[in-house]
Model the fold of this input.
Amino acid sequence: MKIRIEQIKDGETEVVLRYREKTREVEELLAYLNKRSRTLPCRKDGEDVLVKPGDVIYLESVDGTTYAYTEGEVLQTQLSLAGAEAEYANDGFFRCSKSMVINIYHIERLRSESGRRIDAQMTGGEHVIISRRYAKVLRRILAGKE
Done:
């Protein structure tokens, strides 16, 4: 595979991927590029904001409204928790309880709790309890079995 990089003085940044055959290597590059360009639609102070899924630490549903928590910001999103979990599962989104979805890439520390629950310390020091219903699935994900 030949790689050509070109710096331009003005205009929009553009990535062109030319291939003769869609090999596994090409598909991996496409997946990476799509992941980097994906955004999660949110609102803050009445304005539309696009957030990279990797910046979201966790999502929480409170009284029928879903909030996205990033480093230092709380944003409202129209996505349901189930929708966010399905759409952004490859970005690390994991359902940890009835009212929360966490980004497993923002877990700093895990600690077992009584009742087969897990205390996850997230980026920024926030503690999230992973219910016993979802703890088994998280253990399988972390073991690389899912």
Observations:
- The mean pLDDT is 90.
- The CA atoms of residues 112 and 118 lie 5 Å apart.
- The two ends are 31 Å apart (CA to CA).
- DSSP finds three helices and ten strands in the chain.
